[in-house]
Every structure is written in structure tokens, then in C-alpha cells.
Amino acid sequence: MWVFVGALLAATAVHVAGQQEGFLSIDCGLDAKFNGRRDTYTDIAYVSDDPYVDGGMNHRVAAKFDVSSRSENRRTLRSFPSGIRNCYTLPTESGGKYLVRMEFFYGDYDGKTSPSFEVHLGSNYWDTFRNSDFWWSEAIFVAWGSWVPVCLVNTGGGTPFVSTVELRPLLPSLYPQVTVDESISAFARKNLGADTIYRFPDDPYDRFWEWEVSSLWANLSTKKTIQREDSFAVPIPVLQTAVAPVNNGTVLHVGTWNTYKSTFEFKFFLHFSDIQNTQLRQFDIYLNDYEWYKKYSPPYLTADYVYSTGWYKATEGTYNITLAATNRSMLPPMVNAYEVFNRIPHDTPRTSPKDFDTMMAIKLEYGVKKNWMGDPCFPANYRWSGVNCSGVTANTTRIISLDLSDSNLTGVISDNFTLLTELRYLDLSGNSLNGPVPKSLCKRSAGSLIFRYQSDEDMCNKTTISPPLSKNRTAIISISIVVPMLVVAILVVACLIWRGRRKPKISTHDPPREPELQSAPESRKSNGDQLQNTENRRFTYKELEKFTDKFQRCIGKGGFGLVYYGRLEDNAEVAVKMRSESSSHGLDEFLAEVNSLTKVHHRNLVSLVGYCWEKDHLALVYEYMSQGNLCDHLRGKNGAGETLSWATRVQIVLEAAQACEAEDCHWQHHHGGRCPPWR
């Protein structure tokens, strides 16, 4: 389907200096020691490419091409013999619309054959350079961040190179079809009826309007002023010329294109402005054999256009545009200019713009020279060294890991690292960094960030040494520590004295009995008999495997062995302590603890839910304490809750002593005063 739009807005004249505002013109291969240069024909200022690219080599074209009559843009170049992907990173304004153009003039700089390679816009395919002596390619896009990379990708067809890279800001009203999720590449742009190439300053956006002639065309022209429209802003000189079929024919063959890539999809834009209004000019527009637009009449001395709203792909890869006069038309069909664009699909995901901007800030601050070019995460085989990324959401990904160890970084630890809000791992060890660690770096991650700095130690999850304190603060803190410790010591001594008084007295006149010697079978019960009367559940090893999901989540480690998280049939949470082979606790200690904890019940003792005794598998199943372990609470480690007050710590000591007393009393009552094996 075609759309017809008539525009009656007059063109606005703007000074050349204003039109050039925001232009970035890079002369690839220009020595950085020069301050840049001015183009002879356009007066546009060109700069060296050193600040925008890493790697590559500067060259001049062969002597036969390196002559003063040739534009400076085509006398120097940069080649990239190493690395698969090499990129220029261009500064943009997020949400702004831009035209980017790359020019390539081979000029026999290396005495070989002109190569072939791909050109990418961000992480997506843009175009292919195919063994030409000279070629240029333009793309129009909406910037998705503060930096947009354009890349040369070595596909095995020779060493990639480039002569110039040019970035031009566009008004938001231009090319309304272009969005942040869909870019376009200029396949062709032609100025018809003239023998001049127009660009800046005739085109304030510095587009290339190449001329084209044909023996089948008759040239038309006018000196009259033409009203320009703002959707495409075709330059006035381009609209002042046109072509029609020779000999007042009724059919005008505008052009034929053959695509080298079967996946290309195209949009066609025809630009019109009639130079007479005395007779009717009316025609139909065809693409191949399909009638796209019927009975079109171009307006007099006013810019207008017809374009395809959808993307078109011909099965055989050949495209023809034909204009055929209607029966009512008194004049032959005509056209002033045309543009053909192919779609740059954004099929490949890209790094979150915020993360990309942050990584560029880190790169520039420390002068990182690795392979940090293009998109940090995509395509995956070109991912930046030391960078790992999350899964894709809404076609973007986040940076979750950054390893900059041994990267010759100097200076302070940048606050920019805190802007990588999804970062889970950061390694800055092996560098010459100094100064404090930004407080927000660890605080922002709430303990989830593993941060290595001066060694392999995690700086975000370690106990730090406080700086020296003033005398007053030192005295206050000393008192606050010593006094509670004295209280605890007094309470412990009092508890021991009280326990000593409760012990049964042994008569000195009653000599101790000689133990009766019995054979081993008569001196102890069988192991099975010792656990027959326990109240707790006896689990099988397969049950424990099921409840712990095959011992997937380890939550601790002790002298007995590793402790695993589990969930029973009724969803009750448990901690399963499995005896390891290296444990010093034998079967006797295991049986004693099962028997003891079965009989002892105290509010400050963890309850025993059950046990497992199956061949070599010994396990104790306790109720699960979801708030973490006491050690972490006492040390105030991240994620274990608030730091405990001294009043709370004293309370813990007392209640722990009460639990130990209950446990010891039970043991001594049943075992003649001997110490329990777990002490």
C-alpha cells in the first residue's frame, strides 16, 4: 500500500554554521598529532579517529591515488588486521535521531585485493562491503543510549578498513518510520535530471544525493523556488530538476535494483515537485508488476512524496519501479528523486543503555584497552573481556559480573561501579588502586555483591577494622564492653556455685564399689535395642535424599559433618546433619545424642525431629532455625539482621547456660556424673 501526502510548508533558511552544529566528522587514519582539518568542498571540520576507536593501523593510499586533486577523505584510512570485531564508539543523545555514514576507499593501500567484510550498527547487522574500490553506506537510527557503536566485522574475506565515519543529528520529524526498535540503511539515493552530487551545505543534514542519467530519460529543470516539506526535507536544488520519458513517452522506467542478500526487505520513497501547471500530469506507480498507487498528480512547485508503508521483499531479488501515464494525462510521468532503504532488524539483544553508558565511563576513566568495543554483551561471541551478563528481558540484558583483575588500573575506586545496579561480582584485585571503597558499592547491593579488591577476600562481606578513636570515645566503648563482660562472668560463677551445691554428696566412709567385670555381650545392649524406645522418627536414607532434594542446599558445617536444608511431607522445614567420614564422632556419641535429645526438652534447645541409622549413613534431623546462626548475629554480619545490643547478648548467655544445665543434668542423672560426649 502507498501513502500520498501533500505538504505546503515553506522551507526555512538557516545559516551554515547552525546547520553544522552537532556534526561529528572522523578522518580515519589522520594522525592524532594534527588538530584536524577542514574539508575543501564542504568546509566541514574533520578530526582524528584516535579517541573513538581502539586498535587498528593508520595508512595512506598508494602514491598514484595520494594526489592533491583527490579529496582528503580518500587519502587516509585505518585498517584492522587483528581482532574479529573492531568498533567506533560514537557519542549520541539517548532518543535522538541520527544519520551515520561510513566511507571506504581502498586505494591499493596494501597492494592486495580489496576485501569483503560486514558492517554492524550496535549489535545488529547493517551492511556488507563487497570488494569495491569505493563504497559508502548510510544508516538512520534513533539512539538507544549515550553511545552507539558502529563496527567492522572480519568475515574471512580480508582485512577490514574504513576511510571516514560521519555522524549527523536529524530532526525528530525526519523519516518518521525510524524508531528506537527499527533502523534503516540507504540502499540508493538519487538526484535525477542533474549531473551534480549534492550534500552539505545544500543538504543541511549532509546526505549524499548522487546523480543518475539514462538515455531513456529527458531532463527537466526550473529556477523557481520550491516549497520544501519537513518529513524528508529534500534539498531545493534536488527538487528543481526531474526526468521524464524521452519523446513524451507514456512510461518512465525509474530504476532496477538487484539485491545481493535474499533476506533484505525494502521501502521505496519517490520525491516529486512538478515544474508546470498548465496541463494535467497523472500516472500510476508500479513496483515490479504490482500497482502500488493509482492516479497520482505531483503538486506544482511544492515538495511531495509517495512511499511504501510496509516492507517489501521480492522472491527473485529484483526490483523495478515504473510510472505509467493514465488515459486522462496530457503530460508524461516525471520524478525528481528517489530513495531506497533496506531494514536493519534489531533481532540481536543489546546491553541495557544505562549499563553500557556506565561501562563506557569506566573504560574512559581508567583507559581500559582490552577488547572493549561495540556492545558489551552481544553478540555473545564478541562479549567484552571480563564481562558476564544476565538473561534477556525485553530484548536487553544487564551486566552481572565484571572482572578487572590485573588490568593495570590506577587511581581511586570509581563511583561508576555503583551504577551497575545488577552487579553480583566485582574483581579489582591485582591493580594499583588506592583510596577508600565507595560506601554505596557494598551498601547498594545489601550484601549480595562479591567484591574483591586488594586480595581474594570479599570486601563487602568481611569484618573491617575500625579507625582509631578519640580518647573519650575509647573510654566510653571500653566501659560499655568491660561492664557487661564482668556481669556475665559473675553470673557464670554464680551458676557454677549453685550447680556445685546441688551435686549429691558421696560418703567418705562408703568405699567405692569395684566395677563388675562382665563379658561384652552382657555389659551393653545391642545398638538396635538402644534406640527402640526413642520418641523420634527414624528416617531412611532415601527419605532424607527426597526431603533435601538430594542434599542440594548446604546451610552449614560442624564437627559431625555438613548440614543440609530439607522439607518434610507436611512442608515442615528441617536441618539434616549428615555424619562425614572424617568426623571424630563415632557410633557411641551418635547414639548418646539421639537418646539424650529425645528425653531432654527445653525452650532454648533445638528440638530433634528424628534420626537416620542405615548401614554407614548416620544423620540427625533437627527443626530448622530460619533466622540464621548465632555466630553471624553476634558478629553483626550482613544479612543476619541488626547488630545485637549488649542487653540481648547477656540474655543469650544466660539462656544458653540454662540450656546447657538442662542437658548436663539429664546426662549426669543417667550416666553417673560423667561428662557428655558432645562437650
Automatic annotation (TrEMBL):
Membrane-spanning ranges: 475-498
GO-annotated cellular components: plasma membrane
Broad class of the protein's primary localization: membrane
Keywords: ATP-binding, Leucine-rich repeat, Membrane, Nucleotide-binding, Repeat, Signal, Transmembrane, Transmembrane helix
Domain Protein kinase: 549-679
Natural source organism: Aegilops tauschii subsp. strangulata
InterPro entries the UniProt entry points to: Kinase-like_dom_sf, Leu-rich_rpt, LRR_dom_sf, Malectin-like_Carb-bd_dom, Prot_kinase_dom, Protein_kinase_ATP_BS, Ser-Thr/Tyr_kinase_cat_dom, Tyr_kinase_cat_dom
Annotated GO MF terms: ATP binding; protein tyrosine kinase activity
One family name in Pfam for this protein: LRR_1
Residues annotated as signal peptide: 1-18
Gene3D superfamilies with a match to the protein in the record: Ribonuclease Inhibitor, Transferase(Phosphotransferase) domain 1
Enzyme Commission identifier(s): 2.7.11.1
Record localization: Cell membrane
Catalytic activity, as annotated: L-seryl-[protein] + ATP = O-phospho-L-seryl-[protein] + ADP + H(+); L-threonyl-[protein] + ATP = O-phospho-L-threonyl-[protein] + ADP + H(+)
Residues bound to ATP: K577
Membrane topology annotation: Single-pass membrane protein
Domain of life assignment: Eukaryota
Protein name: non-specific serine/threonine protein kinase
Residue segments, region Disordered: 505-535
Bias (Basic and acidic residues): 507-527
